[in-house]
Amino acid sequence: GLGGGILITLVLSGIGGIFLTRQAMQPIEESFQRLKQFTADASHELRSPLMAIKINAELPLEYPMEIGPKDAEKFQAIASATNQMTRLTEDLLFLARTDKVPNGDWNSLNLTSILENLLLLYKPQAQAKQINLISQLTENLYLMGDSVQLTRLFSNLIENALHYTPLEGVIEIKTTRVGSQIYVKVQDTGMGIAPEHIDKVFERFWRADKSRSYNSGGSGLGLAIAQAIAHNHSGLITVTGQLGVGSCFTVRLPAS
Ligand code: ADP
């Protein structure tokens, strides 16, 4: 399997410093691609049955007089669990597709306007939590990329900041350009991340608080997706922070 292939590669290169030719890498690369394709296919196939469950669970809720309150509760539980699963399968599908570099939608993009649109989009949510959503954006930052992916990357970061920052906090989005690199910082005054967890946050399904986050609606894939998108754009995503003080996610992307 894939794990075995990687293990053998690591052991071989570790012991003998053996140089792996492209030919030797090919079966590993192929089984890796097959695994991704499987994830993409599986999540795609799960979409329709999940939609059917969701519709059938939500329909009776529209006729509360015909079902008892106990049944309504059960249908509600089915509907929200189905929503959680739908989100999970959508995220898995997105992740599996994102890793397929580069696709057809590669364009010259104005990152400043992507971020401005997101600021408008999340303004009501910030206001609802009395969070001060502020920005300091450099004009006309252009880069080559996929606008759907980049929008997703930054919306994941902003949604997390909104989610993990308590009432009356501050979220700041800042851009700078240093030479040929664009830096986007999303900083919040939320719960922060423990130093021993800094390396873990980008792992698939990793969460600081397993119990609490389960019901939060997130899939646990948001930052894994953000990282895959950054890598797909030859970029990098890093995080700093302090527990109880806040977090700061920095995305570095090559400018065009
Ligand atoms: P989710 O938010 O759905 O749990 P993510 O992949 O987006 O999944 O984030 C993984 C984990 O990283 C979160 O569960 C949380 O513990 C931590 N995290 C992410 N963003 C922040 C943030 N802005 N502040 C504090 N912790 C965060």
TrEMBL record:
Residue ranges annotated for the Histidine kinase domain, each copy included: 41-256
Ranges that cross the membrane: 1-20
GO cellular component, one term: plasma membrane
Entry's EC annotation: 2.7.13.3
Alphabetical keyword list: Kinase, Membrane, Phosphoprotein, Plasmid, Transferase, Transmembrane, Transmembrane helix, Two-component regulatory system
Sample GO molecular function, one term: phosphorelay sensor kinase activity
Keyword Phosphoprotein: yes
Taxonomy, superkingdom: Bacteria
Example of a GO biological process term: cellular response to phosphate starvation
Keyword Thylakoid: no
Catalytic activity: ATP + protein L-histidine = ADP + protein N-phospho-L-histidine
Annotated function: Photoreceptor which exists in two forms that are reversibly interconvertible by light: the R form that absorbs maximally in the red region of the spectrum and the FR form that absorbs maximally in the far-red region.
Protein name per Swiss-Prot or TrEMBL: histidine kinase
Organism this protein belongs to: Tolypothrix tenuis PCC 7101
Organism taxonomic ancestry: Bacteria, Bacillati, Cyanobacteriota, Cyanophyceae, Nostocales
Residues of the full protein shown: 155 to 410 of 410
